[in-house]
Amino acid sequence: MLSEARVLLQLLRGQPRGGSHAQRLEAFYGPQARHYDRSRERLLHGRRELMELLAPPPGTRLAELGGGTGRNLEFLGERLAALETVWLVDLCAPLLNEARRRTAARPNVRLIEADATVSRPKAPVQAVLLCYSLTMIPDWFRAVDNAWHMLEPGGLIGVVDFHVPRRDPPQGRARQAALARAFWRTWFDRDGVFPSPDHLPYLEARFRTRVLLERSGTIPWLPLLRMPWYLFIGVKAPGDPAPPR
Q1: How many helices (DSSP H) and strands (DSSP E) are in the chain?
Q2: Residue 30 backbone dihedrals phi, psi, to 5 degrees
């Protein structure tokens, strides 16, 4: 309970506005890094579902952009040990320290402290993950484009994140009232998290949609609210035009 109270206090304080992106991340997540996963377990919905739907086969080369503490990889279960290589990229040193402890016995996992918009393995990969990280990357367009470039043709991108849809989404898609859209964007803003109504449209423009889910989940400490999230799996089709480098 004490550790959760400390995390809640840090959330209420919000992320500092000054300094570089890496400095802001370290100042915000450093004090809560050891308790990060416990506090987010009931908040970050859809991660297990994403891994089950993605189902990377043995021998897959996989990159996770904004992988933080490495907790998301554990949702792969026994599949993780059978992957050829996993590149976990994150800009926040305190969270990567937690990932280092978590993956110490996994020789196929490589940790890279770097910017997810530019860091790229030398060899193409078959799968890229972004689990609740796209909303935390200021230049998220470049992160998506970077994922496209590192994927081999036919490779898959899997994304799960907080969701604010467009004001007038396509027929059959999730809708939110104007007040709800403003509330969630304001709610997340103080913690340096920026749900964008352009996330899904841009993902759909860059990749061929294989799975798209729009859901909502409970929030710890606030049981009367339900937080919107989406899950997207897309494929890089051979012959599709490349985004700018």
Answers
A1: 10, 7
A2: -55, -50
